[in-house]
């Protein structure tokens, strides 16, 4: 596979639906999982987020952000936004959270714009460029052959990241859209690449691995959720998503474990398995997520996905935690809260059962992933 496939027409656009004050939230998000000889189970991981929000006041961890108005557009589709670029770095043993969290102006530039450097392209290329002293941009070349991700940092753990993302296989590297509308303009729009290959240089050392990408617009209150993704050495892919109602919706702090987090009621259930062995993709509407507490106060997740043909049971443990702690005033002046946790994972056990037999974790050279869990209600 030489180029990324699918429809990228919305990748460098905003305001696909009329924005709603306090609710509209747009972001571009890369999760990178890298080989690590010293810690082969989880590897090294990087998350980078470029975001803008339709709100006049937000606290994110220790950063106060007062977005300045709505995005501005020119007649060729370029966008200027007041945003934030945020990232964390897991070096295989220690989580460095965060390595950057900066409020800045950004330019979103499609590759068919007159200001695009070099040859214009028609394939969906473009870039998100924070207007900072260092290069913290990401983008895709006009011919769709690769993405890039650059971070010039002033952090003791890592200073220079230069990555190239290239296609992996058709199931993973074809852009896929998901959209839903609940009422009026409430809903979400997501554009995903389930997997790419990664190569590059971090602080002078060559790195290789895989990555996951999504560009998201959410216009709805953010209820608690579980989400997770796994990449397999043979090119397979697994994810799960379980938004839910729980007493943790009332939580207002970022402590790593909640005593009240004992049960939940699923709002919806979903999962996807790209099976490289049998060359098929399977969706799951029956998904169960349970968790228990490790001695280090990090969660262990027990996930079961089932459809009429295939059952997947996987147990993964968090080996580190990054979190984003959001506080914003509501229309009534009351402050709402959301804690969004991201966990690099180690797979403890895996069983895939279908009409062909049983597969287990030992049959793969590696399985790497990340899980999310949130609490609170941002509105």
Task: List the main descriptive attributes of the protein structure presented here.
379 residues; mainly beta; AttH-like fold; 2 domains; 14-stranded antiparallel sheet; 10-stranded antiparallel beta barrel
Largest sheet: 14 strands, antiparallel
Computed structural class: mainly beta
Number of domains: 2
Total strand count, please? 26
Q: Which radius of gyration do the C-alpha atoms yield?
A: 20 Å
Tell me the series of helices and strands, N- to C-terminal. Answer: EEEEEEEEEEEEEEEEEEEEEEEEEE
Mean pLDDT across residues: 90
CATH architecture of the largest domain: Beta Barrel
Instruction: Point out poorly predicted stretches.
Output: none
Number of continuous helical runs: 0
β-sheet strand percentage: over 45%
Portion in helices:
under 10%
Describe the structure.
Strands 3, 4, 15, 16, 17, 18, 19, 20, 21, 22, 23, 24, 25 and 26 form a 14-stranded antiparallel β-sheet that branches. A 10-stranded antiparallel β-barrel has the order 1-2-6-7-8-9-10-11-13-14. It has strands at 24-34, 44-53, 58-60, 63-65, 72-73, 79-90, 95-110, 126-130, 138-140, 147-152, 160-167, 176-183, 186-202, 205-219, 225-232, 237-245, 265-266, 270-275, 280-284, 286-293, 299-306, 311-318, 322-329, 335-354, 357-360, 367-377. The protein folds into 2 domains: 1-220, AttH-like fold (Beta Barrel), CATH 2.40.370; 222-379, AttH-like fold, CATH 2.40.370. β21 (299-306) and β22 form a beta hairpin. The protein has no helices and 26 strands. The radius of gyration is 20 Å and the shape is globular. The chain is mostly beta strands and 379 residues long.
């Amino acid at each position: 596979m030489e180029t990324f496939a699918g429809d990228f027409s919305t990748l460098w656009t905003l305001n696909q639906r009329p924005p709603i004050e306090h609710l509209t939230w747009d972001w571009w998000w890369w999760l990178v999982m890298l080989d690590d000889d010293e810690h082969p189970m989880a590897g090294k991981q990087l998350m980078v987020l470029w975001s803008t929000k339709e709100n006049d006041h937000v606290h994110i961890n220790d950063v106060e952000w007062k977005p300045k108005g709505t995005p501005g557009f020119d007649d060729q589709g370029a966008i200027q936004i007041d945003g934030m670029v945020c990232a964390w770095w897991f070096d295989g043993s220690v989580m460095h959270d965060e390595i950057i969290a900066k409020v800045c102006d950004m330019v979103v530039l499609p590759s068919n714009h007159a200001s695009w450097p070099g040859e214009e392209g028609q394939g969906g290329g473009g870039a998100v460029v924070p207007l900072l002293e260092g290069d913290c941009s990401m983008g895709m070349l006009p011919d769709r052959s690769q993405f890039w991700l650059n971070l010039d940092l002033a952090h003791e753990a890592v200073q220079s990241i230069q990555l190239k993302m290239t296609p992996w296989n058709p199931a993973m590297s074809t852009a896929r859209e998901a959209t839903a509308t609940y009422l009026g303009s409430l809903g979400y729009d997501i554009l995903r690449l389930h997997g790419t290959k990664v190569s590059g240089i971090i602080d002078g050392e060559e790195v290789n691995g895989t990555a996951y990408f999504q560009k998201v617009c959410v216009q709805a209150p953010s209820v608690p959720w579980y989400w997770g993704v796994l990449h397999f050495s043979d090119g397979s892919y697994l994810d799960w998503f379980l938004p839910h109602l729980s007493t943790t919706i009332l939580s207002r702090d970022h402590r790593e474990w909640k005593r009240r987090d004992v049960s939940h009621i699923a709002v919806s259930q979903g999962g996807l398995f790209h099976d490289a062995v049998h060359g098929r993709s399977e969706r799951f509407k029956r998904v169960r997520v349970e968790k228990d507490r490790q001695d280090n106060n990090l969660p262990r997740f027990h996930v079961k996905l089932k459809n009429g043909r295939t059952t997947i049971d996987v147990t993964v443990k968090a080996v580190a935690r990054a979190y984003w702690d959001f506080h914003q005033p509501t229309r009534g002046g009351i402050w709402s809260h959301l804690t969004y946790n991201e966990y690099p994972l180690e797979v403890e056990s895996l069983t895939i059962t279908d009409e062909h037999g049983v597969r287990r974790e030992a049959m793969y050279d590696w399985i790497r992933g990340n899980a999310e869990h949130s609490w609170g209600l941002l509105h």
